[in-house]
Specification:
single chain, alpha+beta, binds magnesium ion, six-stranded mixed β-sheet, disordered C terminus, four-stranded mixed β-sheet, binds adenosine-5'-diphosphate
Length: 327
């Protein structure tokens, strides 16, 4: 049974890559890192009921399980190449349901993997509560990876795309009764939750230009907080500058939209710092790449992240979710 599933996964994710000497089928894959490159590797696990809602479409899960990992490579400025997949499927799932799940999962995974020419080279399939782990491997020229630790006081803080959409999409999925939201806007927010776009091209464009970079998975305050801590600096950002989509602003009031953008998480945008003189160039390049980049604040001496409210006063009241952060 497991072998049928693995065959289906292999067929649906097949990629021809010269650097894969041996893919799915043996006890281990054999892979060749291109000469002169450094290997960047990351892993993330999605557990039903913790990281995704029960009933999530298998294809969405396949996309997202890979997307959250590619986002980590993007944040390092690495080019993705290979992935491993550990699938845990409930024993109670009937054989046909297992096959339907794996087919859908593989199709969602491949929809994101194929344009990147990323090869699924192995994994593990086991029984238990529904959970998915993907590990990704990519390449970066030595010394050129984007680290969290290079931000310096005076650098500008920027973020790609828009923030808060996925958290808003999750809120709508959990509380379908929430006021009337135009179907197209609700679909946009749901898409941002289920099919995040890893900012791989942006990550490459930032090599040699961003002083520090992190992807926003736990929420801007948390992840910018990690960047600041690693850099031994602080940050001041302006709530009024947070990039928010028309759909988010139409579906939620200002305070909710701001909190989603600050602390919602699941955005998979890049938050990065650039010496002030380089900001305009970087913004022009990322605009050309389609995601854009918004300047939201700057790095300062000290530690922690402070947020200036729309009225100019520092936000002090801890809001929902803020206990994870250390302002
Ligand atoms: P082993 O018992 O030696 O670990 P398995 O029977 O678990 O081997 O797997 C057989 C082959 O199928 C291996 O090459 C493994 O990498 C691959 N494989 C198993 N599960 C998956 C999966 N979910 N996705 C991709 N490849 C898988
Ligand atoms: Mg073996």
């Amino acid at each position: 049974m497991e072998f049928r599933l693995i065959d289906r996964l292999r067929e649906r994710t097949a990629q021809n890559r010269g650097d894969v000497s041996l893919g799915i089928g043996d006890d281990a894959a054999l892979l060749a890192v291109p000469p002169g490159m450094e290997l960047a590797t990351a892993i993330d696990t999605l557990v039903e009921g913790v990281h995704f809602l029960p009933g999530t479409a298998p294809a969405d899960l396949g996309w997202k399980a890979l997307a959250v990992n590619l986002s980590d490579l993007a944040a390092m400025g690495a080019t993705p190449a290979w992935a491993l997949l550990a699938l845990t499927l409930p024993g109670a799932m009937a054989a046909e349901a297992r096959i339907a799940f794996v087919d859908g999962f593989a199709d969602g995974f491949a929809a994101l993997a194929a344009p990147q020419r990323l090869a699924l080279v192995g994994g593990d399939t086991t029984r238990g509560p529904l959970a998915v782990s993907v590990a990704v491997h990519g390449f970066v020229p030595p010394g050129q990876a984007l680290l969290r630790s290079g931000a310096r006081p005076g650098d500008a803080v920027l973020v790609t795309g828009t923030l808060g959409d996925a958290a808003a999409g999750l809120q709508l999925a959990r509380h379908p009764a929430h006021g009337a939201v135009e179907p197209a806007r609700a679909a946009f927010l749901a898409g941002r939750l289920h099919r995040p776009t890893p900012r791989l091209a942006a990550g490459l464009a930032l090599r040699g230009r961003a002083s520090a970079c992190v992807d926003v998975s736990d929420g801007l305050l948390a992840d910018l907080g990690h960047l600041c801590e690693a850099s031994g600096a602080g940050a001041e950002i302006d709530a009024a500058l947070l990039p928010r989509s028309p759909a988010l602003l139409a579906a939620f009031d200002g305070a909710a939209a701001r909190d989603f953008a600050l602390a919602g998480g699941d955005d998979y945008e890049l938050c990065f710092t650039v010496p002030a003189a380089g900001v305009a160039d970087v913004q022009a390049d990322l605009a050309r790449l389609g995601c854009g980049a918004t300047r939201i604040g700057c790095i300062v001496e000290g530690r922690g992240v402070r947020v200036r409210g729309e009225d100019g006063a520092w936000l002090e009241t801890p809001r929902r979710g803020w206990d994870h952060f250390d302002p």
